[in-house]
Amino acid sequence: MELKDRVAIVTGGATGIGRGIGLVLARNGGSVVVADLDADTGEHTASDIASMGVQSMAVVADVTKPDSIEKAIADVLARFRHIDILVNNAGVAGARGWQTVPDSREEDWVAAFQVNVKGIANSTNAVAPVMRTQRYGKIVNIASIAGREGRPALPHYSSSKAAVINYTQALADELAPYNVNVNAVCPGLLWTPMWDQVGHRYAQFNPKYQGLPSRQVFDTMIRDIIPLQREQTPEDIGNLVAFLVSEDARNITGQAINVDGGAFLR
Length: 266
Prior knowledge:
The protein is an alpha/beta fold. It has one domain: 3-Layer(aba) Sandwich (Rossmann fold). It contains 8 helices and 7 strands, in the order βαβαβαβαβαβαααβ. It has a 7-stranded parallel sheet, with helices on both faces. Helix 1 runs parallel beside helix 2, helix 1 crosses helix 8 and helix 6 crosses helix 7. The mean pLDDT is 96.
């Protein structure tokens, strides 16, 4: 999966899955732009990536604001002159405080769709013209197995991730004439800062997990729903992303692929 001379932007790239994706892309020779709201953590991740012997930079980007993402893209083009890969990873589980309440609130629905869906559209709209002109590009949207089936715990989140899968299909058809591949990756259960909060919410409001530490909730769910009986990692997600943005996957587009240890078998 040779990515030398390819420039990749990873939104939400400072921590968690985004950081893992960036590190794997760098390991395969790609130059990586870490786009994140957290400037300091973004710079730290970009420095770690650069230490691997590839070019890297950090840009501050709020995917919910077209002006912010467009400025970030302009900064990337000023340095690299081209953009070959866009990984739309930035996402939220809800609005501030979502993990402290038992039911979805109006603000959770708004936040989930603003970031997880419209944020992907904003980033894609800023990068797609570059890829059309180049007549080359790879876009990967990070969805979730929650988007495969409605989950009562976080319906706003599940719905937003289902929308990501649908948008991926539409975009793949739209950009195919320009030699742009568009796919989605659906992660399963990964121990990330976001999942730590999910675990706390389950421990408060789900009788099965009442009072358990967040990590114990996570480990119990691994045993209950993952046939392979092991958690997924950011590197697992990064490995699939690296494949999808390589020429090895040049005839794969419009797909949503699970990385979930067999949790979702349909």
